[in-house]
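User: Can you predict the 3D structure of SCP domain-containing protein? Sequence below.
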Amino acid sequence: MHQSTFALTLCLLSITVFSTDGYAPNYYCSPSLCPHGGPNVGCNPPPLSGGHFCYGKLPSVVPMTPAVQAHILHLHNYYRSRVASGYQFPLGPAARMYTMVWDDELAAQAGNNARSCVFAHDRCRNTPQFLTSGQNIALLKYYEPGAYTVTDLITRFIGGWWKENKKVKPAYIQAFPRSQVKNIGHFTMLVNDRTWKVGCAMQNWSEGAATKVYFVCNYSYNNIVTQEVYTVGRAGSQCQAGLNPIYPGLCRT
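Assistant: Sure. Here are the predicted structure tokens for SCP domain-containing protein:
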């Protein structure tokens, strides 16, 4: 049995190295990018070697290879498909839930958080395209070298977010309640029908005899208190580009 500590948290607000060609060098430092408060995590981000709290801990960026990206997208779309198709009783099916696709800039912003070696939400992670960006984060601490593959870790992290579905009532989907942010926010971030892009990053470091792995996913939209998480209706009935043939109930993106 793995000796591990698994922790999850949620973003209420509301590297890979990504090129910001076309932006001013201090673009992410502009207050206009974070109307609800900052600073933006892309303003003076940690170096590739890791932030201040990584020092002496042998930090390492886990590459988001095409295969890793594909696995992240598959898990998101598999879980979204279950909900959208109406298989997650008592939650109703979704009239318009998009297939998730990868976004390099969201991933770069996730990396700016992950490289801090601090398990905490950044105050703002918005990009020029996505000014209401959401976030899920997770942390695992374990003591057995090589106990987990990257795929194992991602499956565990995203699966942990998904398990919050057990606490979700249909009324919470109709209007996301402030009182439930910490209980269901990861799950609702996974199935929000205004979200269609995701980008993630992972960082690991040593802490004594243990290894810590920090996983961050940023989304093109966020949970908004009192706003519906998704529109309940006949699965895919409001899809404009048709249904995804691989993930039932999801709209083509």
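The chain has one domain: 4-20+27-251. The mean pLDDT is 92.
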